[in-house]
Structures are given as C-alpha cells and as structure tokens.
C-alpha cells in the first residue's frame, strides 16, 4: 500500500485534479440516479398513498395518469356487492388549466369524497375541502405562483377558494390539486361518474383472490395497485432513457479518468515495478499495487462526489422545488458500487502493462 500511495502522491496537484475529475463524474451519476428515482416517486405518488390494494379503471385504460378513464355508471355499488370487498373509494380525475397571474398552469385535478378518502395524504397548511368549490392546492405550486390559503384560483372562468396546501404532491410535469368529487362532477358535467375505483379487501381476503372475482364485471380493467403503478412507470420510460444514457456517459468518463491516472503512474514507475519483479515479486503482488492505486483514487473521488451530489440536490430543490432528486440509501449505495466498478475496470489495462514487464528490458531503457 505504501508503494501505491507513493506512486499516486508523486505529483500531488495532478492527483488532486484527477480525484476531482472522478468526483465530478460520480456526482453526476448520483445526481442522475436520484433524478430518475425522484421522477419515479413523483409519477406514482398518488397511487402509492391512495387507499386500497386494488384499482379499477375503464376497459382498455392501462395507466392512472396517462389515459382518460370513465367507469360505467353504478359500478361503485356493484363493487360493494362483491363478497370480500371492505371499502370502495371512487375518484374522478381531470387535467385542468389554472389562470395564475396571467399564466396558464397545468394541474391534475383529483375529485374525491372526504368522507371516504382518496384525497391529500399530508396537509401542510389549512384543511381539506368541506364546502362547495373549495380546493387544496399543492404547496410547491402555490409557492411558485404566490398562492396562499384564502386566495381564489380560476379554472376556465370558474373560481375556486384555496382552503389548504398539500405536501408531497408536486411534480416537474403537473402538480396534484384536490377538490370534492361532487364539485368536479359539476364542473365536468359528469354526475355520478368516476375515473378510478380504489378497492380495499376485507380482512383475510387476498388481493389476488378478490381481483379474480372482480374481473367478471363488464367494461372495466381490474389491477393490483402495484401493477398499475408499474404500468404508469412504463408509460414514462421515454423520460428515463435519456437520464440513464447520461448516467452511463458519466460512468465511462469516470472510468477513463481513473484509468488514465493509474496508467500514467504505472508507465512513469516502470523501472520500480521492474525492480520488484527482479526481486521476485509475483504478478499477483503487482496487480494488487495497481488495484490499490485505482481503489484509492476511486474511493476518494466517490466520497467527494457523493458530498457534491447532495449539495447539487439541495441547490436544485432551492431553485426548482418541483424537481425531486431522491438521494435514498439505495441510490447512494448503487453510486458507491459504481465507483468500485470504475476502479476495477480502470485497473485492467495498467495491470496488463505490469504483467508484460520484463525486468531486463526495463533496465535497458
């Protein structure tokens, strides 16, 4: 280990710059992984927090947020009559355009019955809607546009008083806004209709078994809620692919930086490696020296990169609060493994160089 550190610290400025290069690559990997995880959490937030373990949509609709669904009239009562059903929560949804300070802002309206549930899971300020026309606004969207509890917002000429601000309902695309289902029915001229039914099985009834019973109902698709969440995520794969591509590029850049560092240190110290070989050092010993150097650079760069990644996430949250960069333990762990893999790949070419050294040839140079 002493020889490995001596080789790396021979030119300390270059060593520091190389560690910084790895740190920036790791920071980008961590940030992009956190961004993808944040997108996943945002697009599935409602279904993950909503009651029930079974979701019923219109036949042919395979997502919650990406398709228009209207359930057959009277379906909620039909669902309640099925043995094994403990609770049914009907929900009506619609994309709406709010007029906020002369700007058109898209939001996703969720109409629910406060007595049954299906509304905001965390109120940061104010209360849930009780009276006709009241809404709960997303707190991030409200902050971005100066909306406060007690203000009135307008949707295509119709005014809604804001009585609460919800948390955890923001998104980089469209935030969630909650109203009473009866009010949304009146606004959309769809009395008694729902977009989604959330079903809770009775105690002792397996969700899979209850889904099998519900599949006999006409005009609907019956999902385990986890399946509908996965279907929603597949809908947004087009957004995830560029993020993954950028993560791969950052990983390759970091690997190249580590590889160049170790390769340069190995070339510059060929004579020392030749001496070690002449003294009887086996290739495995020399491989260990090369790997130790790669691990040292990758470890310092990875730890620094993770710190920079957390700083970048906090900066984004301050500047663009609707964008979630979720740096969960799993994401951080995956980033550390990425740094380790960088070191292993980067050590391969220098190790081959060391293995091919002939002491006699080294001393002739």
Automatic annotation (TrEMBL):
Domain ABC3 transporter permease C-terminal residues, every copy: 245-357
Domain MacB-like periplasmic core intervals: 16-215
One Pfam family matching this protein: FtsX
Protein keywords: Cell membrane, Membrane, Transmembrane, Transmembrane helix, Transport
Keyword flag Calcium: no
Cell location: Cell membrane
Major site of localization recorded for this protein: membrane
Transmembrane spans: 15-35, 245-266, 286-311, 323-349
Organism: Meiothermus hypogaeus NBRC 106114
Tree of life domain: Bacteria
Cellular component terms (Gene Ontology): plasma membrane
Bilayer topology annotation: Multi-pass membrane protein
Protein name: Glutamine ABC transporter permease
